[in-house]
Specification:
Strands 6, 7, 8, 9 and 10 form a 5-stranded antiparallel sheet that branches. With 610 residues, the chain is of the alpha+beta class. Helix content is 23%, strand content 31%. It is found in: Cell outer membrane.
Amino acid sequence: MQLFAERKAAEAIPFLQQAVKEAPNYVEANIRLGQLYEFVRKPELALSTYQAALKIPADPAALALAYQGASQILLKLGRYADAIPLLETFAKNFAPQSSKAKQVQRLLATARYGQEAVLHPLSVKPKPLSESLKIGDSQYFPVLTADEQTIVFTMLKPDGDEDLMTATQTAEGGWQTPVPLSTNINTPENEGTASLSADGRLVVFTACQSKRGGFGGCDLFSSQKTGDTWSKPENLGPAVNTRYYESQPSLSADGRQLYFISDRPGGLGKRDLWRSTRSPNGDWNDPVNVGAPVNTAFDEASPFLHANGQVLFFASEGHLGLGGYDLFMSRLSVDGAAMRWGEPGNLGYPINTSEDQASLFVAANGNRAYYSFEEQKEGLSQKSRIYTFDLPDVLRQQVKPVNYLKGTIADARTKKPITATIDLIDLRTNQSVSRVATDAETGNYVAVLPAGGDYALYVSAPGYLFKSLSFNYTDKTSAETGMGKGVALDAVLEPLGNAGKETLNNLFFESGRYELTGKSRTELERLAEFLKVNPTTQIEIAGHTDDRGDPAANLELSKRRAQAVATYLSGLGVPPARMKAVGYGKTRPAVPNTSEEARQRNRRIEWRVL
């Protein structure tokens, strides 16, 4: 018992083995021996020792630790059917409303849930992502860009140091040999559990006990990529980081929202999910607790916000599962200005097992999932490797897929890349869905495009005419829209002083009428704001039609539509003297009127600088 108290397990075990051999009915010796077997990670020996103790005629109170130890090992091994009768017997020793009874009932609920889940497995076939990614002792917490062409993960070195590594996909679909993410980011200290924006140009990661300076033991830092260079990491500041634990970040696709784990005061349990939003000046606002039903009185871990911004994956010890940490999914509901995460659902077996599960990443298209899997040997965790699997249909249907746009924004005259902002606006609500910026050196961008609505996309830069584009995925299937395959969209912006012109692609009229519909306000507010920012600019607003119908009627309709736009802009504060409304009818088609699609392109409103 002295060796036991000093945690010298290897020395204590032979004495306890001898005690059990000489006195098989010695309850305490059996229980202590079982505990030492657990301590040295020999679960099967511990289980058989506890089971031997339970066969000894003794006061149930004396056997409590044997019941507890045996049942928890059975749950850990996934032997739910064996655990249930043991727990049912154990539960009889406690008053129904006692704290101990509630603990046993919780274990019993886990055993029953696990037994049922194993009987109804999902069609999941995990496989290692790539042999080329197997570097260091372990790899875990994988995150990818929206196009799945770049991966960032945490690598554990033999000396215990954690670094962030990255790899890109080859043309053949394999993965290149990983390289350190950046010498500006990795240090001899630990860096890990990163999150990427959809374009892969903003990373938030965890650094613990860092010489970079911080507020607590583990803080969150960010770095921005320009061209091929990552900036010096910056602490996210005192709103996000505290003297408590902050870790396991998850960025929204546009990098404007951040979910993370913290044990700061104000939560429902020790470690909870918290959310912070990024203000336009780049500062992170005071976080709010995600609250129930996501957070529980137990620990939550590893949040992952899907690229659609409407599905949250996370790990939890508190929700009913198969034992330990299980992975769950919650969907966002919005009621006016209030947003609330719904009741979490367990992802099921074999995604979840009796072992701890964490760090799930689901691709933007909803087809694939990536996670770290701890390879087992003799019941012990060995090395953690990155695995992938196709998301089963039952889960894929709950994850709204998103498409992504990627391309380059350049000057229309010089063809040089420019720093531009890409805004995605929901035309039904006039609310911003996402905002991303191009790379200052390359002009490249990646923007997530959700399904299920009318969206306006605006590309703008100081000193240039803005470009508007329209996307409608309301009633189209994934196959029809090519969801998840990505859309290549390069764009050139006309310098303000070159008398360029652009089409207003998000103006809507009823057929044959000139009254603007409500969905047009987003476009008109954009144009009004442009004219306010450039107060000396004068423009022509030109209406055009296709070749169908009476030419005189078409000409009149085009004039009235152009004038309706000018009148609306005047109501937004633009002086009428700065606008000239004209109609050209069918006389200036953008393309030949050879198809319905072509005619639709010709029915348009253009604006040009005078």
